[in-house]
What we know:
The protein is built from 9 helices and 2 strands. It is mostly helical. A hairpin with a 3-residue loop joins strand 1 and strand 2 (174-178). It has one domain (2-277).
Amino acid sequence: MRTRILTALVLIPGTIAALFFLPPPEWAAITLAIVALASSEWAHLAGYHKPSGLLLVAGTVLIGACMLLTRWSGFDADGGWPEPLVASICGAATLFWVVIAPAWLYFGWRVESKIVLTLVGWLALIATWVAVVQLQARSPALLLALMAIVWVADSAAYFAGRRFGKRKLAPAISPGKTWEGVYGALIAVAVYALALLPFAEAAGYSAAIVPASVIAWVALALALVGLSIVGDLFESQLKRNRGVKDSGKLLPGHGGVLDRLDALLAALPPAALIAHYLIR
């Protein structure tokens, strides 16, 4: 636990500083590097050995570089990418996390095809990267508030599960997760969303929610919690299929980069769509 806390004390301030002080192009480059690290771990979970796994990493970097540097992508140093491109990529990822991933988990599909897992990995990682870059270009504070939904949920689920956990959420996938942890996460995020609402209204962010109500505001936050749980369980399924506890060892006390990003992979692309279409 001590190592876990110390690592978090280094990561969180560094992330917040980069989020608020880096211009969008530099933020995009740094986050692409993080996504590249995550893709190397995804390659391992997909069953690649190191030489061939580098192709997945190279593909991730190439896709990202093309989206940043080529004219066709329409990337703007101040505003990010054009709306249709963001909507297409984040929309495809949202469809995966809302429809396909839950079915994947429910039916216990054991997908061994490296091609399928590679395509899923590229979709999940690139869409999350696009969401992070686009949201930061619009408002670093908005991105931080959205990511904090996942962090609050994760922390509340951990402590509620330890204190009250009895009924297993998905024992075949992640024996440590409980329904009580889920309830704790939902309650904590509901409180967080209500506490955030006055600040959001002051910034003008809640005016375009349809319907513009407290219930809608909290419901959107809770929907992101549900998706974050799907992302967490999905990565746990990949790790269980590969017979490993963590996706990597880069972050002491936390495991790998994917172990920190799993919930965000499922929550941030939909959050980017919500932020664009429902929050003005």
